[in-house]
């Protein structure tokens, strides 16, 4: 009896700690979202207006395939923005119009490559707008503005609306000076992968929120943990992604834990599911881990719940004492 009382008291302390921790995480997430939104809002609105103005004044929009998007084209875009900046600088100075350089680039061209829109902005700047999607539906737009002092100097990131927890500055250091096209593509892949992971988590919360006891995640959603408590056991799901470009996890752990007697209902389970035996220990759910490696998170979640009862029954069936004799 003393052992049972101790376990019940331990469960109460654990629940209290977990509730406090969940409250701290919730406040942290709300603060992070508010700070990010407020700090980026003015930049986003200004860049959005600037990109819209650039597209409205364009004389041509060129849609490119992957083969047409190359270093040569990017060099052409850089040449355009610098020659236009030089032309406007000379126009504003008191010189004879006949002395202005002849510019071969008269058109204002916008380039569309996949989910990227590349514009020539005022002041020798190149603007990239990234469109993101989930399940075929549009999500947020992000912006990145590049500049260089001259055509021969390396480009740098002037301003952007990329989420602060994505490694933009690391990519700028590693890629922008040596391969600007790869940098532009890499940022687009980072953003789309982040949105994909985030939307998968949002979808399971919308569809299965009543079955999820708690859910934690890192800001880029590359570490995710949640618990299922709608059964006579607690199922913990821990997901780790190999990198920020991954949309399927590689480090996966799904474990079913027996609940203490104080938390079990007199019936078999909340939904008639099989309960653990009194002496049962934690159980790895390999079928669930396999589903999470190959399916999206909402699809894998449905697979886990659908087959959970059968998996538990197969692992808690009492063994025949005469089987080994």
UniProtKB/TrEMBL annotation:
Main location per the UniProt record: nucleus
Subcellular compartments: Chromosome, Centromere; Nucleus
The family this protein is said to belong to: Belongs to the CENP-O/MCM21 family.
InterPro entries for the chain: CENP-O (IPR018464)
Domain of life where this protein originates: Eukaryota
GO CC list: Mis6-Sim4 complex; nucleus
Keywords: Centromere, Chromosome, Nucleus
Protein name: Centromere protein O
Keyword Nucleus: yes
